[in-house]
Amino acid sequence: MDGQKQAKKGIGERLSQWLGFYKVSPYVAKFHRDANVRSATYMSLIIVALEIWMLIRYTVKYVIPGMCETFGEYWHYTNSYWIMLAVSLAIFIYSILYDKGKIKQSSMISGIFILTFAAVCLYFGMITSLSDFSRGRMITCFLCMVLYVAGIIIWRPYFSILILSASFGGFYYILSHYAYNKAGELVEMTSADLINYVTFYISVTAVAISVYHQRHREAVKTERLEEAAVKDELTGIPNMHHFTEEALGYLLDNQLKGVSCTYIFFNIENFATYNDRKGYKGGNKLLCDMAEILKEVFPGEPIAREAYDHFVALTKTENLEDKVATVRNRLKEKCPSDKYIDVKAGSYHPKEALADPRLEINHCRYAANLLKNHEDEYLKEYNESLEEGYKLRTYILNNIDKAVKEGYIEVYFQPVVWSLTGELCGCEALARWIDPEKGFLSPGKFIPILEEGRQIHKLDRYVYESVCQKLRASMDAGEKIFPVSLNFSRLDFELMDAVGTLEKLVEEYKIPREYIHVEITESALNENDNKLKDAMDVLHEKGYSLWLDDFGSGYSSLNVLKDYDFDLLKLDMVFLRNFENNDSAKKIIKSILDLAKALNMKTLTEGVESKEAVAFLQESGCGRLQGYLYGKPMVYEEVRKKMEDGEYVLSHDLI
């Protein structure tokens, strides 16, 4: 892209760029200034050393032997050394203090110091070389001083050209008019020396310009890297790294003034749906709109994009609810046709000014998450009443690795039977967490937390391997096995290679693929998820049966049937709640079962708890049943024992 832009530029514009006629950011300007001051440090130190050596040399050669008798005579021959030494020493001290931040880093002051140093260097070089040239010697001193000047004044190229041209041109004029030998004759520069002189001028100027552009590219690159380290790449507002640093200072300043402050966590509700409908370009625009709104509502206060559709702010507590309401209303105005878009916010008043802002934001996040699916509420404060739930969430996220490693997670199996015979045709694998500290943890608690914390894949992989281990052990013991359905979260396909993980386990334990059924919940699907579609196609090709779980619990049931290819449709248990007295529910269930049959999909209904439900589902043509009527989730060994006792009869038809 940069190359294309460069190619489109005209000759005049490119020449202007080459000469340095363009604006630079304060960061780039400071980068150049700092580089020049550092160069002055080294150059001035060299000249300090040289001048001290020259003074020692003069003293040894003339003062000690008594050839220089008076101070006036001594000063006459050494004053230029002393002036150069004083100026160089002053520049050296200034540059050291500048680099240490001990003095004001002003562009004007540093420019004056450097120009003064350059002027003294040029003056010394011209006077010395004029004397040398008059005696038939080389003008080495002037050339050295010009090199020093070119090295410390790496400013805009046009300025380097100007000052070097003036220096070389001025000195050539001086040589042409004031270089007299002892005989009073004007000494002329030979043609060869003049060519070398001009060549040296061109070379030094080219080097100065080249160094400038090299520094400039480095400055721009460094600025971009530093901006990337503190800014969110998409929205341009600060990221969490910068927010945490800024927030602490903001809190302390306001605490000294006696002003109360509050952290806020913003979540754009249903953003995933918006992103699916509008595409990434539309979704990105909405995120940028949210960032602009935050800048307007919280001017001069710490804000940041945390991740995805999550934003944070730290603001004065006064009028907090009005500020949040303004953010919410303005964002909804940005997408008037998308009524499902909303903003949920959680707030937290920090107890300590020096507490880690990331931890404080976690409190806000927890409060905001409690507002999901609450249309009338958009702001919730984290307080002591929420402390227990927050601690449980933190405990679960911090201990999932340990729970998996130590075996606190146990896999339970809930039977699935044929509706007509009641014979066992499989089980669903379900996770239970029996913690030594917290006791029994309900999956309704820890699974949503793991999904929200993006750690659900750790649990699911453990369940997959546990199932494979148990089936393998039964096969090795010569026992008949039954198919097991495994639950796959949408996040499993994002956070791990779900297909590769399952394939590796199945091959390692040598489990026939027809004994593993893959359940994917309806809410995990959307019409634009090509990655998930591709993964499902691979699973089908490998020989796995794909089940659509919780059908009817989402908003896009028919779209799912249209866009995805499933082998079995699993009706959500919500359809069986009070269905005996609800004719509409019966009609809906019957219609769904007929639709599934028309689409060549097998059927299973979960949540079966009464014989009335069984009779209705048998009559309606539902193939499989699952529910407490046939057994609650239980450990694998209990299922095997019930099979041995004849309570469960394993069907010959398992697929």
Helix and strand topology:
Elements: H1 2-8, H2 11-19, H3 26-63, H4 71-100, H5 107-134, H6 140-152, H7 157-178, H8 191-230, H9 240-256, E1 261-269, H10 271-297, E2 303-307, E3 310-316, H11 320-334, E4 342-348, H12 357-369, E5 379-381, H13 387-406, E6 409-418, E7 424-435, E8 439-441, H14 443-452, H15 456-476, E9 484-488, H16 490-495, H17 498-509, E10 516-521, H18 530-542, E11 545-551, H19 557-563, E12 568-571, H20 583-598, E13 602-606, H21 611-620, E14 624-626, E15 634-635, H22 636-644
Parallel strand pairs: 4-5, 7-9, 9-10, 10-11, 11-12, 12-13, 13-14
Antiparallel strand pairs: 1-3, 1-4, 2-3, 6-7, 6-14, 6-15, 7-8
Helix pairs in contact: 3-4, 3-5, 3-8, 4-5, 5-6, 5-7, 6-8, 7-8, 10-11, 15-17
Structure characteristics:
15 strands; alpha/beta; 22 helices; 655 residues; eight-stranded mixed barrel; elongated
In short:
The chain is an alpha/beta fold and 655 residues long. 58% of the residues lie in helices and 13% in strands.
Question: How would the global form be characterised?
Answer: elongated
Instruction: Determine the N-to-C terminus distance.
Output: 56 Å
Largest sheet: 8 strands, mixed, barrel
Question: What level of helicity do the residues show?
Answer: 55-70%
Low-confidence stretches: 1-7
Order the strands across the largest sheet as they lie in space.
6-7-9-10-11-12-13-14
**Beta strand count:** 15
Task: Give me the secondary-structure category.
Answer: alpha/beta
